[in-house]
Every structure is written in C-alpha cells, then in structure tokens.
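Give me the 3D structure for Methyltransferase family protein.
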Amino acid sequence: MRSFEDLVAEGNAVPTEGWNVSWFEGRATEQRPSWGYQRLIGERLAGVESALDLQTGGGEVLAGVPVAPPRLVATESWAPNLEIARHNLAKHGASVVSVLDWEDLPFDSSSFELVISRHPTVTIWPEIARVLEPGGSYLSQQVGAGSVRELTDFVMGPQPVGVERDPQAVASQAEAVGLEVVELRPESLRLEFFDIAAVVHFLRKVIWIVPGFTVEAYGERLRALHEQIEADGSFVATTERFLIEARKPAG
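Predicted structure for Methyltransferase family protein (251 residues):
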C-alpha cells in the first residue's frame, strides 16, 4: 500500500494541460450524461458550413468528431492549451484563436451557423447572440450549480451553492438576449475517487471546485480524505450537468 505522501506527490506532479483524462483510469470514474455530447456535436457539425467552439481546452473533444464543417474556429484562453489544441485540431483544418473567456469575440456578427461549448467557465450570451447567423444555434454542455459539492465541502467546510449556474437561470440569460431556448436537460451523475492522488490532480485541474487549492494549504483535509478513502474504498461525489440549446430567430 502506497503512503499518503507518495500519492499526494504523484497527484501534484501530473501536468494539467489539456483535457486528456486517461491518467485517471483506475483511479477515478465519472458517469457521462445520457445525451453523449461528442456524438451530438458530431452530428450537428456534419450539417453546417461554419462553426465556433468556445473554450476548447486542448481540443480533445472537438478533434474526436468524424466530420468538420468547411469553416471551423476554436477559442482558448489558457496559453499552454493553445498549441495542444492547434495540434489536435489540425486534421480538421481548424483555426485556434487566443481569446480570454470573458472578452468580446473577435469575429464578425452573424458569422457562424453553430456555436458550441463544453463546460465553459462563463457564457457571454450577448456575444454568442451577435456572432450567430439568423436561424443558427448555440449548443452547450455546462456544469450545473453545486457540482461536486461533496468534495468542496469536505475540503473547505460547508459552502453556499450559487444560483448563477442553475439551468433555469442560464436559460433566462439566453432569452434575455433574444435567443429561443429549444432544449434544457439537466442530469445528476456519479463521480468516484479511488485514491488521494486522483483527488489532488482533479483539484489542480478543475480549479473552481476548491478555489486557490494547493497541497500545502489543504494538507490536513487531504490526509483526512485519504484516510476515509482507505476505510471506505472510495469517495463519492455528484456532478451536475445540463445540455442547453438556444436558437437565434431566423427573421
């Protein structure tokens, strides 16, 4: 059995660039939403001439679709991900543009038939409405309110659950800029960690679960969690996901 110190050191050393999650195999499992986001966007991309992927990360999800439209653009804000995304998306002929998540988009109005985004940190609805062509759609899988709150509360103590990621609140924001919400589907899913190394890497990678997380700052809570995992076999949390599609009126 490996020591707490060895496991924490391993989780703290794994690179966090990109969204390749193969390192977690055997260490953590996450239930996937029923709609199958990659398959869904693959179907949509095959039927349009232009598409924009916001906050693409390392482009891993987008790279996995079988067919890309003639014009495919992706944005990413984190510098280490830009070259990874450019490499992953080269086979689709996509251009990857550096754009901060909260910035206005550097694209002409009414320039994309489809805008997609998986797990955006923020959704700038006025900009999405602006760059969509009339009749175009925004399709996104998003993180819902209170996702993985069991882990947040264990590490930080009980925390309030904000309403800004509530699916109905997000739908209202889309409608406020003139988009029509044609689908809104939430799901609660199981996330399970089998060792503390997986927890450490997850908290370093998904930085909003425990804001400002470092091993040094939360060493005592990590040790307590390690002991709980050793006793119970795993630590179980709940991820909140929702699918939203919002359409720009054609008129």
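The radius of gyration is 19 Å. Let me know if you want a second pass.
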